[in-house]
Amino acid sequence: MNKIETRCLLCSRPLQSAISWKILLTKQFQSTICDKCSARFEHSPAATALYQYNDAMKDYLHQYKFLQDVALAKVFRQELHARFKNEKATIILIPMHPLKQKERTFSHMEELLKAADIPFTQLLEKTTTETQSSKNREQRIQVAPLFRLMTGAHVEHKEYLLFDDIKTTGTTLRHASEILLNAGARNVRCFTLING
């Protein structure tokens, strides 16, 4: 068995990874962060999220989304793959406004699922460049519709799973769910990487 040395994407400590047939033949990803960094992320007790929001997650989101460190999309790929690999519902990402995506240079949600090798589709468009993080709880709850169906999108009577990075008040997910349900979705469930 050969060992290759890589470094933790968060702290740069060396990672010793053994190449095995199990890793090569199954959908198991090489570790991208060390055990010490991994232990800083708090798993969520909620069935609708992987992790709880804490200081480690705040730092991760800042570096990934705002400092545009797209390599960090790989950090949670094993957990996301395990969660979604047998998902029967069509996975839909909460989209970014095109201007925000151009500014950021990548869609952080798309990159998370691509890194985890999870198929997804896009049926929604964001209607505003405003972010929910810039609003207080009351402003988030009273916000105008955030999404619309993409031109030519057909929402069959199927089950959909909305995926977003973080849930705080649930306004974003509620707005997206309403658009899909009003367009004919049979059922819409929600799942997030982080429960805020």
TrEMBL record:
InterPro entries: ComF/GntX_DNA_util-trans, PRTase-like, PRTase_dom. Gene3D superfamilies: 3.40.50.2020. It comes from the Bacteria. Belongs to the ComF/GntX family. This is ComF family protein.
